[in-house]
Specification:
Elements: H1 2-19, H2 28-40, H3 42-61, H4 63-91, H5 97-104, H6 113-126, H7 133-138, H8 147-175, H9 184-197, H10 201-235, H11 239-259, E1 268-269, E2 272-273, H12 274-301, H13 303-311, H14 322-349
Antiparallel strand pairs: 1-2
Helix pairs in contact: 1-3, 1-10, 1-11, 2-9, 3-4, 3-10, 3-11, 4-8, 4-10, 5-8, 6-14, 9-10, 10-11, 12-13, 12-14
């Protein structure tokens, strides 16, 4: 979550710059310098981190239904509509066909073990399967909800969001003859170069960074709910006290991560900055262990109870068949652990 908080602070900073018309520039050196100044400025980084965490915790204080659900109900449809609009805009650019070919052109030569591992890693981390988010939200699900269908919709919507993001970014990148970079370089350097060359690019920049901020905010709120729910249920904290404790801990940990790009950039742990080290440990060890634990507990130890929960649904939703239950059980017991371990091995080799 401290990773999301730091990156969310960057998104908030670029949204503010886009609103002032200063996010885009045709000069890549200017953009690199601007991004470097943002991440290396300890005070500025911490200030945006504080603002982003305050927005996240303010939402969490109101609970799942009054806070998180209302936020998602309002912002996610806006997010998808804006992304669809940006995708249409990107696809109409001259030369965007090369971006479509890059995204969707299929070749059997690309179906390699490494590509399959990359796909499994994307699935594992994009759905936060090792972070306890879905387990926590599952406690709030109505008893009449048909869980296999709900899980399928979660996967479908996550895939749609990923495809939309690709349609927004890649056609525009190829239309202007730029390299399809990844990570912060793509979002904070390559795309602002494109915005500077677009007609109405300042408006597009505002819309794009607003979408990015919404995505970071909703993801961070979901992750925070895991810790808040634990403190409420296991330690008997009130919701406000749990949120405040999480805010304090995250602000301290996030500040340490934010300073690792500037004043503490020389402080390395096993050759990695503090930010990269925490991200590496969380991604390759903590999430992996948690994912394996969930698969083991649900697939073996608590499978009778899990099977009963999966079978409980309202009459209008139909009945979960024995074949479906057997497939889910096999996946939890055998396929899920193998996929998690393979994804972990890939991350350790990277």
């Amino acid at each position: 979550l401290s990773y999301y908080a730091v990156v969310g602070g960057w998104c908030a900073a670029y949204l503010a710059e886009a609103l002032m018309g200063e996010a885009a520039s045709p000069d890549p050196e200017v953009l690199k310098m601007r991004f470097g100044e943002l991440v290396s400025s300890g005070g500025r980084n911490i200030a945006w981190l504080f603002a982003f965490l305050a927005a996240v915790c303010l939402t969490a204080v109101f609970g799942v239904h009054r806070g998180i659900e209302r936020l998602s109900t309002c912002l996610m449809p806006i997010f998808f509509l804006l992304m669809i609009g940006l995708a249409a805009y990107s696809l109409l650019l001259p030369g965007s066909e090369a971006g479509l070919a890059y995204l969707f052109q299929f070749s059997w030569s690309t179906v390699t073990p490494q590509a399959i591992l990359n796909a499994m890693g994307f699935t594992f981390f994009s759905l936060s399967l090792g972070a306890g988010v879905l387990v926590t939200y599952g406690a709030y699900v109505n008893k009449s909800t048909r869980l296999p269908a709900a899980a399928m919709w979660v996967a479908i919507l996550a895939l749609q969001a990923a495809i939309l993001a690709g349609l927004v970014i890649m056609p525009a990148v190829f239309a202007y003859g730029l390299e399809p970079d990844a990570g912060p370089g793509l979002v904070f350097i390559t795309l602002p170069m494109i915005f500077a060359q677009l007609s109405g690019g300042s408006v597009v920049a505002v819309i794009f960074y607003f979408c990015l901020f919404v995505a970071a905010l909703t993801s961070a709120v979901s992750l925070l709910e895991v810790a808040v729910a634990f403190l409420q249920n296991e330690c008997r904290f009130s919701r406000r006290a749990a949120v405040f404790l999480c805010f304090a801990a995250l602000f301290i940990l996030g500040s340490v991560s934010a300073l690792s790009f500037g004043p503490w950039s020389d402080c390395l742990i096993f050759g990695r900055s503090i930010f990269d080290f925490l991200d590496y440990v969380c991604t390759n060890f903590l999430m992996t262990i948690n994912g394996l634990a969930v698969a083991f507990v649900v697939g073996w130890k608590a499978w009778p109870k899990a099977m009963k929960e999966l079978s409980t649904c309202s009459p209008e939703n139909g009945v979960v068949t024995k074949g479906t239950l057997s497939a889910i059980g096999f996946g939890l017991r055998w396929l899920a652990p193998l996929m998690v371990l393979a994804s972990c091995w890939q991350g350790l080799e990277a």
